[in-house]
């Protein structure tokens, strides 16, 4: 039995794991989906004071409070930044790191580091104007119809303070953990290209490809579940 901790990406919340959690429970595992401060059902806490450190503490606090061990720590998209920070701090309690179409930072990098100059400029302008990043069109995640409508209803603005916040961590400590990258290929989200290149160039990665869009937990829940269950062995 493993303890799964699922960390969503930008604009999302714990709600996005609705189609995956029952399968983890049915397989005999314990699983928690965390909502990061300022989004989802915690959108009422949105504040300029929220940074990447806030979100790292959100997830670490769940692991500590629930006294979790042998954690399969899963980060989706921006959540890759968060789980990397958590793994650095709580490495002895992490059994496996799963980056679900997620950002994989180097020490000192921020979420923005892997984006093109054009994306960086547009997002920084939005943050300067509103303090937040407005939700993305679910079509960018390969969603359509009822799924796109559901995600569009549920998404909330992303706290702007997380965008350029650097993450400092021990790269060797994190690299020593078993790691899986789940590459969502159809369509492939451009802002994850840097991660795709990295896992194919570096040793130590288990690579899983799913022919679906960026929100695989919504568009391909069964394939996502299989990838997560494999990380528990």
Average residue-wise pLDDT: 97
Number of domains: 1
Please report the first level of CATH classification, the CATH class. Answer: Alpha Beta
Question: Number of helical segments?
Answer: 9
Record field, number of beta strands: 8
Distance between the termini: 9 Å
| Shape by Cα distribution | globular
- The CATH topology name reads Rossmann fold
Radius of gyration: 16 Å
CATH architecture title? 3-Layer(aba) Sandwich
- The CATH H-level homologous superfamily: Alpha/Beta hydrolase fold, catalytic domain
Strand order of the largest sheet: 2-1-3-4-7-8
Short key terms for the protein model shown above:
alpha/beta, Rossmann fold
Q: Summarize this, please?
A:
The chain has 233 residues and is α/β, with parallel strands linked by helices. It has helices at residues 21-26, 52-65, 79-89, 117-130, 145-154, 171-175, 193-201, 216-219, 221-230; strands at 3-7, 30-34, 71-76, 94-100, 132-133, 158-159, 179-184, 205-210.
């Amino acid at each position: 039995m493993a303890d799964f901790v699922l960390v969503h990406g930008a604009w999302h919340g714990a709600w996005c794991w609705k189609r995956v959690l029952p399968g983890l429970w049915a397989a005999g595992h314990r699983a928690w989906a965390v909502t990061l401060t300022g989004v989802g059902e915690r959108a009422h806490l949105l504040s300029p004071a929220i940074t990447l450190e806030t979100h790292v503490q959100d997830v670490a606090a769940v692991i500590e409070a629930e006294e979790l061990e042998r954690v399969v720590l899963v980060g989706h998209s921006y959540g890759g930044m968060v789980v990397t920070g958590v793994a650095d701090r709580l490495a002895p309690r992490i059994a496996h790191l799963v980056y679900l179409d997620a950002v994989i930072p180097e020490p000192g990098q921020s979420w923005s580091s892997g984006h093109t100059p054009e994306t960086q400029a547009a997002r920084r302008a939005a943050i300067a104007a509103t303090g937040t990043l407005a939700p993305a069109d679910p079509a960018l995640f390969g969603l359509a119809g009822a799924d796109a409508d559901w995600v569009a209803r549920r998404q909330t603005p992303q706290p702007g303070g997380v965008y350029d916040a650097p993450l400092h961590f021990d790269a060797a400590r994190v690299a020593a953990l078993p790691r899986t990258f789940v590459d969502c290929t159809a369509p492939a989200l451009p802002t994850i290209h840097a991660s795709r290149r990295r896992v194919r160039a570096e040793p130590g990665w288990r690579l899983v490809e799913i022919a679906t869009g960026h929100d695989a937990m919504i568009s391909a829940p069964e394939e996502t579940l299989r990838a997560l269950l494999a990380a528990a062995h």
